[in-house]
Design goal:
37% of the residues lie in helices and 18% in strands. With 383 residues, the chain is α/β, with parallel strands linked by helices. The protein folds into 2 domains: 3-40 and 277-373, Rossmann fold; 49-268, Glycerate kinase, domain 2, CATH 3.90.1510.10. α1 packs across α16. The longest helix is centred in the middle third of the chain and has 20 residues, at 214-233. The relative contact order is 0.16.
Length: 383
């Protein structure tokens, strides 16, 4: 019997990772009813990270935090023993903006710090920040403030929210925030390697996705640069070096704030693959199907499908990709995947925001995989 592992990431805007896996499995089993199919919903640090963790050994807990625009919201964190995973997108993400209205200059990461406080109060000794999908570009200032850091204006009052607030920063003291995390392993799970500042920094690259105009981007980048200089003036000797470190620009600069607190950057894809036991599942699989919303240049930097394919090579297991769209030529995908199917090749409609259409097309792709690649029961799969 052919053993198939279906392990995709979400299709942003249409389907969760679990919904993608179920649709693919339905189509594949229609074409190969003899196959033994296992599903594994994956995440790389963005939306769906808590759900992915809880498909393994973690359980969810609710926490009330400050949302990106200052209004309270109830978010879920994932807990296993003394490890707590906080999904930034669930706390200050684009998806939790009231009425979906962007706030590029004022959105705050304060709720992340409150979730961290919740974890600390419960005795956590490992806190994982899953960084991605946020509405903020505040350099993690809100996170630092809620953990006790003093970020004040010239008159001694706390700075306001967001990157705009950073523009008024005069004095910084991280002592209390750093003390709060003393002895805690802070893991910054991200697959973004952008620095904090400049043309490849968080404001320039991700600001427009959060509603920032060209003028806003310049204002945000200037404010973040001033933040770094104020930190240096306050005696944070590695402030400039950390601002240039890969991942500092993740999640609107939450990566930078995490580094200031002693956190360590880890590949989100690799973290979740290890967390969910992907290596063990691959060892028992003849055939693997993975995917994500967009297979593009960023994917080759180690995002989930490519990271999974790299892991599968150690088991000599073929990996097939089903994606929302693919912007890479076949010679760029061939080293990683035995085949690639894109939903945009099957329809002229906007499937990226149509969950029903996406699910139907995914089922169609699953059946295509069965017809083309899975041989009759009892034979070996193509590798």
């Amino acid at each position: 019997m052919v053993s198939v592992l279906i392990a995709p990431d979400k299709f942003k805007g249409s389907l969760s990772a679990d919904e993608v896996a179920r649709a693919l499995a339905g189509g594949l089993l229609k074409g190969a009813p003899h196959a033994r199919v296992s599903r594994l919903a994956l995440a790389d640090g963005g939306e769906g990270s808590v759900a992915a963790a809880c498909s393994g050994r973690f359980e969810t807990e609710k926490v009330v935090v400050t949302g990106p625009t200052g209004h309270p919201l109830t978010a879920r964190v994932a807990v296993h023993g003394r490890t707590v995973l906080v999904e930034a997108a669930a706390v200050c993400g684009l998806g939790v903006l009231p009425n979906g209205r962007p706030a590029p200059l004022t959105a705050t990461s304060r709720g992340i710090g409150q979730a961290v406080q919740y974890a600390l109060a419960g005795g956590a000794d490992t806190i994982v920040l899953a960084l991605g999908g946020v509405a903020t570009t505040d350099g993690g200032a809100g996170l630092l403030q809620s953990l006790g850091a003093a970020l004040t204006c010239a008159d001694g009052t706390p700075i306001g929210p967001g990157g705009r607030g950073l523009a008024d920063l005069h004095t910084v003291d991280l002592t209390e925030a750093r003390a709060a995390l003393n002895g805690v392993d802070l893991v910054l799970a991200t697959d973004v390697d952008n620095p904090l500042l400049g043309p490849t920094g968080t404001a320039a690259v991700y600001g427009p996705q959060k509603g920032a105009t060209e003028s806003d981007v310049r204002q945000l980048d200037d404010a973040l640069g001033a933040f770094v200089r104020r930190l240096e003036a306050a005696g944070v000797t590695d402030a400039a070096r950390l601002a240039q470190a890969p991942g500092a620009g993740s999640a609107g600069g939450l990566g930078y704030a995490g580094m200031l607190l002693g956190g360590r950057v880890q590949s989100g894809a690799d973290y979740f693959l290890t967390l969910l036991g992907a290596d063990e599942l691959l060892a028992d699989s003849d055939f693997v199907v993975t995917g994500e919303g967009s297979l593009d240049e960023q994917s080759l930097s180690g995002k989930l499908p490519v990271a999974l394919a790299r892991l599968a090579r150690g088991h000599a297991t073929a990996v097939h990709a089903v994606v929302g769209r693919c912007t890479l030529p076949s010679d760029r995908t061939a080293p990683h995947f035995s085949s690639v199917q894109a939903l945009t090749d099957l329809t002229d409609r906007d499937c990226a925001h149509d969950s029903v259409l996406s699910a139907r097309l995914l089922a169609q792709c699953g059946q295509t995989l069965a017809d083309r690649w899975i041989v009759p029961q009892g034979a070996e799969t193509s590798r």
